[in-house]
Structures are given as C-alpha cells and as structure tokens.
Amino acid sequence: MQSVPTLGLDEEDAHVGPPTFFKVRFGDFDEFVGVLDRWRALTNNGPMSSDEISAYLDALEEPQRATLQKLRETIAEIIPEAEQGISYRLPAFRLNGKVIAGFAAFKNHLSYLPHSGSVFVELEGDLAAYSKSIGALHFPIDEPLPKEIVRKLIDVRLLQAFPK
Q1: How far is the C-alpha of 69 from the C-alpha of 54, rounded, in Å?
Q2: Predicted pLDDT of residue 127
Q3: Inter-residue contact 1 to 12 (CB < 8 Å)
Q4: What radius of gyration, in Å, describes the C-alpha atoms of the chain?
Q5: How far is CA 70 from CA 114, 143, 146, 161, in A?
Q6: pTM
Q7: pLDDT recorded at residue 78
Q8: Which residues of the chain fall short of a pLDDT of 70?
Q9: 67/104 Cα distance (integer angstroms)
Q10: Where are the domains of the chain?
Q11: Could you say which DSSP state residue 59 is in?
C-alpha cells in the first residue's frame, strides 16, 4: 500500500488512501475540496477585474468609501495601463504582472500599500506627516492622500519593479 505524507498525523493514519485519509481527518472529502477551492480563490493572483475593487469599496461605509474611491481614481490616472483587482484580498493595481500599488480600509485609518518594504525609505521627508509600518502608509479615513504624494510613491515603486 502506498503511503501519503503524514502531515503530523499518527503513523496508522498515514497509510490509508487519500480519500479515506481526508474522510478520517476532515469528515468529508468534498467539503475539504470546497475549502481548498475557496482558499485558492482568495489567494489567486491571476487575472484581475476592476469590479472586484468596486465590490470592496461598495462594502465600506462613508467616509472610507469616498476617500478610497478618490485614491483609486488618482492611482488610475497616474498608471492608467494598470490592471485593477484584488490581490491578497485587498484592492491592487498590477502592471506587467507586478503589483505596484494598493489600499485597504480599517476602522480608524486607511492604508496605501506600495507592495514593497523599501518605498517609504526613499520618501522619508515627503511622508513625515504620516504614520506608517514597513508596508503601509496610514492616513485619515476622511482625507485623501494628495496626488503629489501618490505620484511619488508610484514613481519609486515603478523604478524598483522595473529598473532601467
């Protein structure tokens, strides 16, 4: 009998066939496949759709929705050729297969996401008024980021993603 990887299971469980293995550990093989399919959909970084960002924004309350819609329009104006959609469960803009910019809503702040931990270092003076983590620039829920700041963030990220 062919064994399956143990995944940390008891020795006796490791020697049952895959469908039996999943039935023993997960109850229903079809249920497990459904969970796996949902997980793949959430982490899929394949083709993107701007409708996904619209749905994300529609789920938000004001003023977060309007503030992030303004940011979306600003990003789209700066990189109109970028594909819009969801990446890692958050709105994102992808150019030539690389995510260049994104954003997220939280209860007490909004975040601009450059999808690179080294963008902010290059713009320390310009970003001094904002709190940030390594990968997120935080801004108020009712104050859109200035277009000049967004342009600088995107310019730095483009140079990193596509060096000349």
Answers
A1: 9
A2: 97
A3: no
A4: 21
A5: 17, 10, 10, 24
A6: 0.71
A7: 98
A8: 1-48
A9: 11
A10: 13-43, 50-161
A11: T
